[in-house]
DNA sequence: TTCAAAAATACAATCGATTGTATTTTTGGG
DNA sequence: CCCAAAAATACAATCGATTGTATTTTTGAA
């Protein structure tokens, strides 16, 4: 039943050698055009389909790149993936998409599987749980080129494509301040991830610029899921210090908070102005629409892929890690316009 | 640089045969425990990692299943994928996720790549452009088990996991009627896809039940992107027959229409009530919140995977295609409550 | 017509792991 | 202490394609 046509079957059918068939199918100049035609038509007739397992094994390389993201359902990540696919496709590479679901264990497993499948390279954005880099160091020692995008780890010799999160956090916070907020809460994520550390740094920087005292109790750390936003909102309201602004390190948690505030009858933005991060599509339509920081996902995907492919095709081993930093932009909507 | 440790390296280091190493790594009872221990520790020491290309080639099978969806960014599909991953992971299978982006060409390419990589089976939801089944018939002849979910084609011997779209369309339309609508427009998709044909059939069935004349000019066909919804809304408004209800075969187009209506100052649901389909997260937060039909994505993914794995592990060739039909449920929100 | 160069094709090893069969080693009952 | 059975290990073929080298065939200039 299974299609078992191999180059040997074709060779036998035409009484020629398998090596010639292989070369013909790869359009090698060493094979006569007439022979190529015969082989191609016979291959077609027999429903031949190259066995990439065998091919890749022999060539000791694949033209597949692995992509690991925390969740494909996040708009930012699916945009990045689109960018990756486009760039990879143009270069003749396939893409395997995997999601860690923010779990270190899954991330480890995925790295293992990708390496076992001998992918040509890996693009990844680490999970929130990733505080242990063994699997990544392993991949590095192993010689598999990889590159971080958005969420990275500091590993010697590994490049990354990032956005300027300090600036993003600064812009978001400054925007709130310029709209009259004086007591601004902040939802942050795991501090092991520099994106969250940096957004927080931007927040603090903005407070400093405007001489607003930094109150650590207004900064809540969580996994930034919707439920975390809801609970964070509750926590903030319970503080003696009343907040009038909130900068959340992602849109999802911001929305969780919005729902809670709305439920409590708190007016947004009048009583509390809110700014998110990532520009999820949902943020545009929620009421009030959510001011947020837009990240160029598609472009990040394209650039990352281009850099990774360079790395893959680089013969030399001179590792020159570089950080590519892209700009984000604030999108002003109703949740912050007082 | 590249990690080249093979079972032969381990074998040589321990002065034993590679076959023993292989058996040890696979925990075969034919190898002495002490030897296993030595091999395992040496493998660890050398940073050995099984080459799945070689392994799969030899075994002539992989434990990878391919998944093809139109777009990973659609909430419904990412839920299905989560279900698939969970079920596959439990059974020791890996998952390759691919998106056709609604393009037939890409779907064809993806099928080719998956077959070339000898995946154990494929789960797919066809693209809107898919009107030609050659690539799928090819996969069938080839003997690769596959199964449709949500969007299927009628191919002899191929099972599918679907939801009851006629019922869903009926429920949506009846809901509008019971809320007082008499002139209900409908956004439909390509009629080659039975999901859209069926939702339309449900729409018509509901009209018949309530003795409302069916007006074909109120049914617009498109790719159901947001822009199609916006344009569809414009078209519907230009008709002599004024509509007071709209059933869109997906949420995205419904939202496109909502935006247009809101822009035109048309009140929802008072002047026009709207029901979508798929329950995208965005539908819950848009203002007014969108009534929609929820599909059990996660469950669809789990069931599909279970059935596919059965198919894969079935030795016999007796093809007994079956359709599994799941129920959808209407979620009533503000866009339809008059 | 001849023959060296070029073109076309065949041969054979190889990628790394698996697995059926053969051989060696160990075990334990008599 | 011997030997058959069991256990452990070694040998060798194989999966399907690729590729360096060798051989055969063709070409065309002298």
From TrEMBL, chains A, B:
The lineage of its organism: Bacteria, Pseudomonadati, Bacteroidota, Flavobacteriia, Flavobacteriales. One of its GO terms (molecular function) is DNA binding. It comes from the Bacteria. This is LacI family DNA-binding transcriptional regulator. The keyword Transcription regulation applies. PANTHER family: HTH-TYPE TRANSCRIPTIONAL REGULATOR GALS, LACI-RELATED TRANSCRIPTIONAL REPRESSOR. Residues 5-59 form the HTH lacI-type domain. InterPro entries: HTH_LacI, Lambda_DNA-bd_dom_sf, Peripla_BP/Lac1_sug-bd_dom, Peripla_BP_I. The keyword Chloroplast does not apply. PROSITE patterns: HTH_LACI_2. Keywords: DNA-binding, Transcription, Transcription regulation. CDD domains: HTH_LacI, PBP1_LacI_sugar_binding-like.
